[in-house]
Amino acid sequence: MKGIIILNLDKNSELHIDSEHPQNICEELGVTESMLKTVFEEHKKIRAGPNYLEMQIKRDLSVASFFTGHSSKHFIGKGDHAITVFLSDKDILPKNFEGQVRRIAFELLPKRKDKKFKDLFATSFSLLEKGELDAYWQEKQELEQVLIEKKEKIDDLAQKVSMLVSDRTDHLRNVQALKDEINSLYTKMDNWSVQMAELNEYNANLTMKVKEYNELIEHQKKEIAQKGEEITKLNRIIEDKQEIEDGAVKLLAQIKQVKTEKEALTNEIEKANETNKKLKFQILKVTRENEDHLDSINNLKIENKQLKDNLMGTTNEKENLKREMIDLKKEVKVLRRDRDHYQQIMKDNNLL
């Protein structure tokens, strides 16, 4: 044996030499990167799990290589690694050589980061050359156990098949009954299909009606919204009318008060007229008495003067009352015009 190397795939699936013994053995043997890639590709062609191969890579150089298996599937030791041994033409490999290389993969690859790995690797190669490594066949034993279990399952299935064959007659009768039941079900299915078509047509009509009802509802919603706006406007008008009514009530109260004041003034004017008449009668009486009583003329003149002064004050008061009457009449006229205006507004807005 000329040497041994460990190949592995990095994160970018690039192949490179992880370890080699002796140092620079590939360079000494003239092994190129393409040769190593060829070995790795041959492993992939065999299967994705652990596998072993022997092949010649040069005229005077061959290899015995063990692939540990892909890391995403079942592997031994560490996934995506290959342990490749360089052989000369004189090397005769023992029957358990694959198991010995498997032992190196199983025991050494998990210890790759150990500081003594190189020494362990050299020791393993020395034992491999001497044929002193114990073969590692646990995986094959597990596969054999799986095969035994599969064989037992196959035997059970074969027994069940034989039992099914023996019951074939009953099975055929059951099949015929099932066929009749299926035909009956097909007939029911045809009837159901007809009913389903009718229901679909009825459903389509209902859908159209629902659509029409929805459109009608939308139209009614719009009308209700318009009515709501009209009601809002009417409420505002009613509020305005209420203000007008309140103003009219106040105006009528003012008119009533003016009438009351007018009646009071009229009564006062009548009283003033009565007083004036009495004063005139007294003046006449005094004048007659003055003619009859010349001796007391001076006193009468004084009294007459006082009476005239009183009469003048009464006349002035009468003139003032007349002017006030004229002003009151004007105010009453204005109030009547306002009253007529408010009554017209109330009539136009149907408030009466």
Tell me briefly what this model is.
The protein is of the alpha+beta class and 352 residues long. The protein folds into three domains: 133 residues, Beta-Lactamase; 30 residues; 120 residues, Helix Hairpins (Orthogonal Bundle), CATH 1.10.287.
Describe the structure.
It is a single chain. The protein has 352 residues and is α+β, with helices and mostly antiparallel strands. It has three domains: 3-135, Beta-Lactamase; 137-166; 229-348, Helix Hairpins, CATH 1.10.287. Helices cover 71% and strands 10% of the residues. It contains seven helices and five strands; from the N terminus they run E-E-H-H-E-E-E-H-H-H-H-H. The protein has helices at residues 25-29, 33-46, 97-108, 117-130, 138-166, 168-292, 297-348, and strands spanning 3-9, 15-21, 51-58, 61-67, 81-87. Strands 2-1-5-4-3 form a five-stranded antiparallel beta sheet, sandwiched between helices. Strand 3 (51-58) and strand 4 (61-67) form a beta hairpin. Helix 3 packs antiparallel against helix 4 (117-130) and helix 6 (168-292) runs antiparallel to helix 7 (297-348). The longest helix has 125 residues, at 168-292. The two termini are 130 Å apart. The model has no long low-confidence stretch (mean pLDDT 78).
